[in-house]
Design goal:
This protein is α/β, with parallel strands linked by helices. The protein has one domain: Alpha-Beta Barrel (TIM Barrel). The protein is built from eleven helices and eight strands. It has an eight-stranded parallel beta barrel with strand order 1-2-3-4-5-6-7-8, surrounded by seven helices. Strand 1, helix 1 and strand 2 form a beta-alpha-beta unit. Helix 5 crosses helix 7, helix 7 packs parallel to helix 8 and helix 10 runs parallel beside helix 11. The structure holds 2-phosphoglycolic acid (PGA). 2-phosphoglycolic acid binds next to strand 8.
Length: 254
């Protein structure tokens, strides 16, 4: 089965509304002819409606960086799935390692957030990945297995058909040190077989598994040549429209 690659930009806590609109507008213009890559950008919550208007009718779609799992309520400072869809988001990043590390998100919370997203019709981009210590102690697969099993606890294959799984080794995020192609290939193959065992072969074949962690124009081609890599989740290198466009226009023949 052919999976359309996805190249997603996680803008984290960068860019004011006007700055986000400027970059999104440049990006949309630079990518206006692209039909074979799903392009997504995830700006800060407050920029979502502004950026939604800026990319309307272009190949660029919108994602959020987080959400709360309750539908509504007294949760000061939080944001719901319905608020995100109303603001123009189609995707939502869930369980990013920065959320897990600095905001103590657990696999159980990730699971609830995925449930909230799916219920509201938002497509979850579920982030998983091992720390450097876990890799050094040869706990990489055990860690990923637990994150997938607990994070997708109780879901049937039909419910998560639009899920995107993002493998982001924590030690490769924002460090400039991307995982090497052998490491990425091994993990992506493992994840696909895990999805097959846990859900179904159809689901495993249709779900996109993207890689994240120091992706840049210099390493995207070799990453995209790996059979089980269906795209990339890009942090730092997505902030500049020209650089991000180079990643979106990857060429596996180079
Ligand atoms: P990076 O971030 O590309 O800056 O390493 C990736 C991410 O956090 O998704």
């Amino acid at each position: 089965m052919k999976r359309m690659p996805m190249i997603a930009g996680n803008w984290k806590m960068f860019k004011t509304g006007p700055e986000a609109v400027k970059t999104a507008t440049q990006l949309a213009a630079a990518c206006k002819d692209i039909t074979d890559v799903q392009i997504m950008i995830a700006p800060a919550f407050v920029s979502l409606p502004l950026v939604a208007a800026a990319v309307k009718g272009t190949p660029v779609c919108l994602g959020a960086q987080n959400l709360h799992f309750e539908k509504q309520g007294a949760f000061t400072g939080e944001i719901s799935a319905d608020m995100l869809t109303a603001a123009g988001a189609e995707y939502v990043i869930i369980g990013h390692s920065e959320r897990r590390q600095y905001f103590f998100e657990t696999d159980d919370m990730v699971c609830k957030k995925i449930r909230a997203a799916v219920t509201a019709g938002l497509k979850p981009v579920m982030c998983i990945g091992e720390t450097e210590t876990q890799r050094d102690r040869e706990k990489t697969f055990l860690t990923l297995d637990k994150q997938v099993s607990d994070g997708l606890q109780g879901f049937g294959p039909e419910e998560i058909k639009d899920l995107v799984l993002a493998y982001e080794p924590v030690w490769a995020i924002g460090t400039g040190k991307s995982a090497d192609t052998g490491q990425v290939e091994e993990v992506h193959q493992y994840l696909r077989s895990l999805l097959e065992k846990r859900f179904s072969s159809d689901l495993a074949q249709s779900i996109r598994i993207v890689y994240g962690g120091s992706v840049k124009p210099e390493n995207i081609n070799e990453l995209m040549r790996i059979t089980d890599v269906d795209g990339a989740l890009v942090g730092g290198a997505s902030l500049d429209a020209d650089t991000f466009t180079k990643i979106i226009r990857f060429d596996t023949t180079l």
